[in-house]
Design goal:
- This protein has three domains: 46 residues, Uridine Diphospho-n-acetylenolpyruvylglucosamine Reductase, domain 2 (2-Layer Sandwich), CATH 3.30.43.10; 109 residues, Uridine Diphospho-n-acetylenolpyruvylglucosamine Reductase, domain 3, CATH 3.30.465; 131 residues, Enolase-like, domain 1 (2-Layer Sandwich), CATH 3.30.390.
- Helix content is 33%, strand content 23%.
- The strands form four sheets. A five-stranded antiparallel beta sheet has the order 4-5-10-6-7. Strands 14-13-12-11-15 form a five-stranded antiparallel beta sheet, sandwiched between helices.
- The two termini are 38 Å apart.
- Bound molecules: flavin-adenine dinucleotide (FAD).
- The site of flavin-adenine dinucleotide has 31 residues, from strand 2, helix 6, helix 7 and strand 10.
Length: 308
């Protein structure tokens, strides 16, 4: 049962941060409430004040620029439906469509997802391949942090108590990039998630003589370890590989990615199982991205997996 609480509805970030600073441990930021209210109902959190962030100017906006800025209070549903997101980075919209279920997507926010830092987050995984940075606001002003530094571990971030996550900034891939996102799971939240992006020289005339070679490979693996990570050593295996002949390099890269993760035994499976699944799904994600780079859309689908 929910214990009584006071709901504050500030309209500026300054007002909201002042409330958080003044109320201290008695207060929590509140967006869609899909995580927060669950924890409060279970009695695991007992804030006496909730600071609603949804009315704060700019928190609900998606804005264009050199980077795509998504306000912290933007819902998954709004990301899925945004024409701007589709135009700048269609995979972000496609992944949003597969987050949770429609009830969670309607109210759950991008900021709530990242600030909660559940290790089973699709967004944190995908956004790593888009060089994401978070914007934090506090009574001391604004600061920006790479997402990789913001998410420190399971349910742990670099955010301090009186800070709010204001927005997330993504650097869209250049046009000649093909990407895929694959997640696998039999529970409510994904057991494993892989994002892969391959930039090919020569696509759309960007090559300058390097033909069909991969010039930038990005792989992020999420949900299996304490936090999502880029698989840098695996990415290196793909550089300068021909996109028409990627199979062998993809196999080697997926083995390297599997060796680089830090899984633990839990309800989602044993560490060995997760490591094996990373190898399988990194290979699949790379194959799909490579096929897309060649202009084909693979029809192959996998049980209990979503391909975006
Ligand atoms: C059944 C279920 C299935 C799910 N499946 C998936 C899935 O498949 N993939 C996936 O990625 N996620 C999944 N999720 C997680 C879901 O994406 C999050 O629940 C949602 O995005 C959280 O946003 P919210 O606005 O509801 O956060 P809230 O519940 O309002 O807040 C969550 C936490 O973040 C803090 N917070 C919120 N906003 C801010 C802010 N602006 N600044 C600082 N702190 C803030 C709150 O204080 C709280 O600690 C699932 C959740 C549920 C309940």
């Amino acid at each position: 049962m929910l214990r009584p609480f006071t709901l504050h509805r500030p309209e500026t970030a300054e007002e909201a941060c002042a409330l958080l600073a003044g109320l201290g441990e008695d207060a929590a930021a509140y967006a869609g409430g899909t995580e927060l209210l669950l924890l409060m109902k279970l009695g695991l959190l007992r804030p006496r004040h909730l600071v609603d962030v949804k009315r704060i100017g700019g928190f609900g906006d998606i804005a264009d620029g050199p980077r795509l800025t998504i306000g912290a209070a933007v819902t998954h549903r709004a990301v899925e439906r945004s024409a701007l997101v589709r135009a700048r980075c269609s995979l972000v919209g496609a992944v949003a469509r597969h987050v949770a279920n429609v009830r969670v997507r309607n109210v759950g926010t991008v900021g709530g997802n990242l600030a909660f830092a559940d290790p089973h987050s699709d967004l944190a995984t995908l956004f790593l391949t888009l060089d994401a940075a978070v914007e934090l606001v506090s009574p001391r002003g604004r600061r920006e942090l790479p997402l990789a530094e913001f998410v420190r571990g399971p349910w742990e971030t670099a955010r301090v108590a009186d800070e709010l996550l204001a927005s997330i900034r993504l650097t869209p891939w250049p046009g000649e990039t093909a990407a895929a996102y694959v997640k696998f799971g039999v529970h409510e939240r994904p057991t494993l998630a892989v994002a892969a992006a391959l930039r090919v020289a020569g696509a759309h005339g960007a090559g300058h003589g390097r033909g069909d070679r991969i010039v930038d490979a990005r792989i992020a693996v999420g949900c299996v370890g304490p936090r999502p990570t880029r698989a840098a050593a695996a990415e290196a295996r793909l550089t300068d590989v021909s996109i028409t002949d990627v199979e062998e390099a993809a196999r080697a890269a997926s083995d390297v990615a599997a060796a680089s993760v830090d899984p633990a035994d839990d309800l989602y499976g044993s560490a060995d199982y997760k490591r094996e699944m990373v190898a399988v799904f990194v290979r699949r994600a790379l194959r799909i991205a490579a096929a897309r780079a060649r202009g084909a859309e693979p029809s192959e689908r996998f049980p209990h997996a979503v391909v975006a």
